[in-house]
C-alpha cells in the first residue's frame, strides 16, 4: 500500500516514515497542505495520513478539498486535536479513521490494516490461495505451510497481487506501490522481482498477461 504522510513535524515525520516502511508500506512525505493536495492529484495513493495542524492550510480544509475533488483515497487523520468536535468534523468530511496524538505505533499499523482490508478483497489479515498463505500482520508467506524468504519489495509485490486475485496489475501499478518520490527505477526492475518471486512459489502461481501485466488467477 502506498501512503502519503502529511506531517510538518520533522522528527515525528521521519520516525513515522521509517516505522511505516518497516511495516511494509511505501511512504511519500508532504510537509504542507498545498504539497499534499498537489501530490494527491498526481499520484495514486491508497491512503493519506493527515495531520490537521499544518503550517499553511488547516488539515480539515485539505480533507474537504480532497473529497471535493472526488479522490477515492482513504484518509486517516492523525493529530493532536483530540476534542470530540474535531473528530466529528473530520469524520463528517469523509475521513475513514481518526487517531489522536500521542499514539501507539502498533495501533496505527492495526488501523492501516483495517483500511487495507476495506480496500481489498479480503476481510482477514490472512490471505490464503491454493498452497500459499500470506499474513499481513507478521509480513510472512508460507507455501504448503513452509515459510519462504522474500525481500521487502518482493513481499509487497506478492501482497498486492494476492489482495487482487483475478485482477491484472500493470507494471506501472506495481511500481507505484513500491517506490517513493525520486527513487530511480530501472526499466526491468519489476520483471526481476517477479522472476525471483516465481522461484519460491508454485509453478504458474503468478501469470504474465503479455503487454498488460501480472495476475494471480482465481483458478
Describe the structure.
With about 220 residues, the protein is α/β, with parallel strands linked by helices. Strand 1, helix 1 and strand 2 form a beta-alpha-beta unit. The strands form three sheets. A five-stranded parallel sheet has the order 2-1-3-4-5, with helices on both faces. The protein has eight helices and eleven strands. The two termini are about 25 Å apart. The chain folds into two domains: about 1-120, Response regulator (Rossmann fold, 3-Layer(aba) Sandwich); about 125-215, Orthogonal Bundle (Arc Repressor Mutant, subunit A). GO terms for molecular function: phosphorelay response regulator activity; transcription cis-regulatory region binding.
Largest sheet: 5 strands, parallel
Regarding quaternary structure, what we see is single chain
Give the overall pLDDT as a whole number.
90
Please name the CATH topology of the largest domain: Rossmann fold
CATH architecture of the largest domain: 3-Layer(aba) Sandwich
Unreliable stretches (pLDDT < 50, length at least 5) are none
Give the overall form: elongated
Distance between the first and last residues' Cα: 25 Å
Count of helical regions: 8
CATH C-level label of the largest domain? Alpha Beta
The proportion of residues in beta strands is 15-25%
Amino acid at each position: 500500500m502506498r501512503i502519503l504522510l502529511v506531517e510538518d513535524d520533522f522528527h515525528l515525520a521521519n520516525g513515522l516514515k521509517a516505522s511505516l516502511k518497516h511495516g511494509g508500506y511505501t511512504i511519500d512525505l508532504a510537509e504542507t497542505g498545498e504539497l499534499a493536495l498537489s501530490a494527491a492529484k498526481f499520484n495514486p495513493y491508497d491512503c493519506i495520513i493527515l495531520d490537521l495542524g499544518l503550517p499553511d492550510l488547516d488539515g480539515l480544509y485539505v480533507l474537504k478539498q480532497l473529497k471535493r475533488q472526488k479522490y477515492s483515497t482513504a484518509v486517516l487523520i492523525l493529530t493532536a486535536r483530540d476534542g470530540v468536535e474535531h473528530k466529528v468534523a473530520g469524520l463528517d468530511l469523509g475521513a475513514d479513521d481518526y487517531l489522536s496524538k500521542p499514539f501507539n505505533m502498533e495501533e496505527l499499523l492495526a488501523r492501516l490494516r483495517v483500511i487495507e482490508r476495506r480496500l481489498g478483497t479480503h476481510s482477514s489479515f490472512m490471505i490464503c490461495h491454493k498452497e500459499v498463505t500470506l499474513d499481513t500482520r507478521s509480513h510472512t508467506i508460507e507455501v504448503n505451510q513452509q515459510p519462504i524468504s522474500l525481500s521487502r519489495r518482493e513481499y509487497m509485490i506478492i501482497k498486492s497481487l494476492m489482495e487482487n486475485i483475478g485482477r491484472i496489475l500493470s507494471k506501472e501499478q506495481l511500481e507505484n506501490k513500491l517506490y517513493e518520490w525520486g527513487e530511480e527505477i530501472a526499466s526491468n526492475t519489476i520483471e526481476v522481482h517477479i522472476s525471483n518471486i516465481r522461484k519460491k512459489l508454485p509453478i504458474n502461481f503468478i501469470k504474465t498477461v503479455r503487454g498488460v501485466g501480472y495476475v494471480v488467477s482465481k483458478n
